Amino acid sequence: VGAPILDRDVLLVFVIGIVLIGIGAAGKALNLGSKFLANTKSAKRDRNVDLVIGLLIWLIAAGFWLSLPTEANWFTYEPRYPNYEFYPNSDALKYDITGQNLILGSNMLFSGFVMHKPLYSAFLALLHTIAGPDFEKISLIQSAIFAVFPALVFLLTKRLHSRLAGIITALLMIFREVNSIELTSRITVSHSRLLMTETPAVIGIILIVWMVFVWIEEPHKKILQTVFIGGVIGVLIQIRNEMLFLLPVILLFTFLMYYRFPKYWLKSSALLVAGVFLFVLPWQFRILHFTGSPIWMTRRADAILTRFQNEPAVSPELQQESFTPETESRAGPLQYIPSHFIHNQKQAFLIFPGAYRFVDSLIGYTFHGNSLRLWNQCCSAENYLDRLYDFWSWQKWDGSVQKESLVPIFITLFFISIGIVKSRDKLGARALFPLLIVFAFYLLLSGFRMSGGRRVQAVDWIWIMYFSIGLSQLAIWVFQFLFSAKVPTWLIGTQKGSDGDFSAHQTLIAANNPPLHWKSIFSIGLVTLFFGAMIPIIEQIIPPRYTEETLQAQLKTVSMLDNSHILSEFLETGGIAQQGKALYPRYYAAGESEENDDIIRQFGNLRFTLAGPISQEIVLPLTDLQQLRFPNYTDVLIIGCKDGYLDPLAVYVESENSIIFRDPLPEELVCPLSTPSGENN
C-alpha cells in the first residue's frame, strides 16, 4: 500500500498554503512584480512561473530524498562481510542483473528468462555505465532523477485547479516519499531509492494524463499527439506490463468525449493504437526469436495462474502483495473481484492520516512536560505506525478499520470530494479522467486476484492529488474568511470553468474534420519505431565480454596457481568452467538467512550473484574466513557442477588472482558435490 501521509504532513502543508496565499495577497496589495507582469505576455509569463516553481520543487524533492540514509529492507540486502555494502535484493536484484547482462554483452536474461521489463533494466545499465557498480551511488542518482515526479504532479494539478493546489500536492508527495524511505525497514514499500519500477510507472502515468489533457484541449490541432501518447504507453508497458490497461481506458474516455464525432474518434484511436504497436513491436520480435512466443507475459504466466488454482499461491512475494483469504481459492469472479476491488479502495483511503495526534499528545504534554516525548507522540512516523498497528502490519490485516480512524477517514473523504467537485467545475468531465484510470486499474488487479501491496502505488497519487485540491480550497476559504484581502489569480486560479472553450473546440472538430498529414504521421511513426528498437539494437552492438578465448586465458592463469591440479583433475572427471561477473558478495554463518530466503542453510556460505552468460545466485560453502578478499563487481571463473544449478567447487577471483575453494572440501571430487551436511545439492 506504500507509506502513509502523516497528520503532521497534512497540517504542515495546510499552513504553508495559507502562508503562500498571504504572501501572494501582500504582493498584490503592494504591486510587487507588477512591472514583470505588465511587460510579459500572459502565456509566456505563466510558462516561466511554472518552470521556476517546477524546478524548485524538483530541487527540494531531490534534497530531501538524497539526505536520508540507506536502510536494509525487503529489496535491499543489509551490509555483510566481506565488503559491508548495501546491495539490491529480490525484484530489484533481477532488474539490476539484467541491466548488467546488457553491459556485459549477454542477452537481457535472468535465470534463463527473457526480461519482461527491459526498459527499466536498460535504464539501470545506463546508470551503471555512467557511475559504476556502486549500489548506493546508483540509487542516489536514480532518486535525483525521479525527484521530477512531484514537479510533474504540480504541473498536472495546476491544470486541474491552481498553482496553490499543485504546490500542496507536490509537497505531500515529497513528504510521503520521505516517509517511505524512513519506514522502509518496517513496511514493504517501493520508493525512488530502490531499484524498482513503481516510481517510473507513476511518472509515466502522470505524463500520459497530462498529454491527454493537452490533446483534448485543442483536439482539432493536436490529433497527431495521439501517436506520442501511444508511444509513452509502449514505454510504460516495457517498464510494468500491466500498464497496457491505459490503452482501453483512453479509448473509452475519448469515446465518451467524442462519440458525436465518430470519424475523429476513429482517426485518433487508430493513431493511438499505432503508437503503442510501433514502440513494442521490436521487443516482441526479440521475445519471439528467443522463446518462440510473442507474448511478453510468458515468463509470468505460471505465477499468475497460481492465483486461479485450488491452492493459494505460496510465493512469499505473492503472499505479500495479495489479499487472499483462505476461502478465496474456492470463490468465483463475482466474489473475489468485488472483494479485491473494495480492498484496494480501502487501502487507498488509509494512506491518508488515520489519526490526528496533536490534541491528545498536547494534553499528555501538560502532565509529563517532556518535549522529546511530545514530538514522538504527536509527530513521529514510528509512533504513527505503532498507533495504527492493525493496519500497518497489513500482511496480517483483516480488512477492518480502527474506530479512532473513522473521523479521519471522513475528513479524507470530505477533502477528496471537494477536490473532485472543484476540478470538475474548472475542466468539466475531463477532470474525471484520472478517476477512470484509478478504477480501471483496481479492476485489472482484482481480475488477477491482487489487491493492495506496492502495485497500487501506480495510481494512489491520484487520490492525493484530489485530496490536495480540496485542502488548498479550504486554505483559500479560511484565508478569505480571516482576511478580506484580494488573492492573486496567478496563485489560486480563476476557479472559472472552461467548458465553453471545450465546446468551441468540439465545434471546430465538426466544422474542420481535421485531416491527417501522412508525411507527418510517417515521420512520427518512424521515430517511435526507432526508439522501440533501441534495446534490441544495443543488444546486438555490444560485444560479449566472455568468449572462448577469455575462458582459455583464465584457465591458463588458474593453472599457474597453488592447488590448481585439483581443479584440472575435477574438470577431467565431468566438472565445468563458467566465466562471469560476480556481484553483491555476502557471507552467512550457519543458520543465517534473509527474510525472503526459501532455504536456511546449516553451514557457513559465501553467496554472490553471477552475471554474464549464466545469471544465478552462487552459494559457496565456506567456513575459513581468514584473509577473504572478494570485491564487488569482479570477474570470476567458477569450477563446479551444473545440473540446472551451478554448484561451485572453487571460484577464481581475477582481481585478487586467487582461488577460493569450497570448505570443507568434499571427500569425493565428483558431480554432484556433497554439501557440508552430507546431502547432495
Report on the architecture of this protein.
The protein is 57% helix and 8% strand. The strands form three sheets. Strands 7-6-5-8-9-10 form a six-stranded antiparallel β-sheet. It has a two-stranded antiparallel sheet with strand order 1-2. The protein is globular and about 90 Å long. The chain has helices spanning 7-29, 34-38, 42-66, 90-103, 118-131, 135-146, 148-160, 163-182, 198-217, 225-237, 246-258, 262-291, 301-305, 316-321, 333-350, 358-368, 371-379, 381-387, 389-392, 406-427, 433-447, 457-482, 489-492, 499-512, 518-532, 534-541, 548-558, 564-572; strands at 76-77, 87-88, 109-110, 113-114, 576-588, 605-611, 616-621, 634-643, 645-653, 658-661. The protein is built from 28 helices and ten strands. The longest helix has 30 residues, at 262-291. The model is unreliable at 310-327 (pLDDT under 50). The two termini are 38 Å apart. The chain is of the alpha+beta class and 681 residues long.
